[in-house]
Amino acid sequence: MDPPAHILIVEDEPITALDVARRLRRLGYQVVALASSGPQAIQYALSHRPHIVLMDIHLQGTMDGIDAARHIQAAAPIPVVYMSAYADAATIERLQAITQAAGFVPKPIHLPTLHATLQRVCSRPQGDPLLSSLSPSKRLRPSRCCRPALVTPSFTLMGRELDLARDTSACGMTPDALKSDKRLSF
Known about the structure:
This protein has 7 helices and 7 strands. By secondary structure, the protein is α/β, with parallel strands linked by helices. The protein has one domain (6-180): Response regulator (Rossmann fold), CATH 3.40.50. Strands 2-1-3-4-5 form a 5-stranded parallel sheet, sandwiched between helices. The protein has a two-stranded antiparallel ribbon with strand order 6-7.
């Protein structure tokens, strides 16, 4: 069985970060940490060495997601998938000029789009410079917890999936366990 892809989520809105983490776990990804600022993202990326960083562009503080990604990619070949509700042309040009963006997912996050983007990044050719730090035997895939039927949201409200108890239990997590996970620090 292939190991699950390890993801670092960088999002300064705690509810959004927990929601994205829950959804990724449900798909079988391993969320290694949540960061809420640029400096914290750099620290976690270098200490946890995730396979992918899912980065919000607009973060609170002096460092935005693009600057944080630049620092991360200067130190380690980690692919960065950006997410943002604000994708104006100047921002997109800036992220393309400064970093090697592996993808972009608009907010509100649409689960099939996020999953497809992460799968595309995970299945890059072995020679891809952003994935060169991985051993050839590690093909990144969601873990056995992934079920294709779960990719399509069964019930949404304003673009968000509902029923936290049902969704987290699909991967053996309870809402309380998700909240008490020490890797989810803000």
